[in-house]
């Protein structure tokens, strides 16, 4: 099989399509506040708790991916992603929370805010009804944009020793995290080949929608949007 060049890769087109949304995420005061450490810890902990709830549902997308996959290699990758999310990534949240006295029981009982709920319900519904390519196009902005943010913050933040958000930056900038997101990108490129324009448009729409949800999630944790009544 001839590998497509970087330029005509489907995921490159997706990236171009959401560039403005992702640039606004990079400039978001929450992300900038993580970089220079000026973000109040109280805001960060609200994010940690909401993100823990988010990741519990997000992990289910990988379980669904394993159910939908047909070859053993792909099933293994999805089960690896499920494991990494529940253990490595959520350990980061457990550890930040433990430091300020928030235990696992409190984390388990945390309830999703409206944006958080809308975001995960969108992904779960689209992934249950759609193809494996649809599932990946829904969940990819989450992995890919975080690796971009982590890499940018690590490059720009300077020395991370003693930085309050150093462990967060290190996790998302890590090569391990990057390689998981690269595997998803390669798979989506492979599965997009031979799809009709209508099918490709559906993938683009999922990618744009969840990129917008990513922005809204940052906004939600920055401004503390909760249930109005
Ligand atoms: C809302 C959100 N988006 C993405 C990620 C990275 N897995 C995350 N932890 N939380």
From TrEMBL:
GO terms for cellular component: cytosol. Keywords: Hydrolase, Thiamine biosynthesis. Pfam families: TENA_THI-4 (PF03070). One of its GO terms (biological process) is thiamine biosynthetic process. It comes from the Bacteria. Pathway: Cofactor biosynthesis; thiamine diphosphate biosynthesis. CDD domains: TenA_C_BhTenA-like (cd19366). Its EC number is 3.5.99.2. It catalyses: 4-amino-5-aminomethyl-2-methylpyrimidine + H2O = 4-amino-5-hydroxymethyl-2-methylpyrimidine + NH4(+); thiamine + H2O = 5-(2-hydroxyethyl)-4-methylthiazole + 4-amino-5-hydroxymethyl-2-methylpyrimidine + H(+). Residues 15-222 form the Thiaminase-2/PQQC domain. GO terms for molecular function: thiaminase activity. Belongs to the TenA family. Homotetramer. Catalyzes an amino-pyrimidine hydrolysis reaction at the C5' of the pyrimidine moiety of thiamine compounds, a reaction that is part of a thiamine salvage pathway. This is Aminopyrimidine aminohydrolase. It comes from Fictibacillus enclensis.
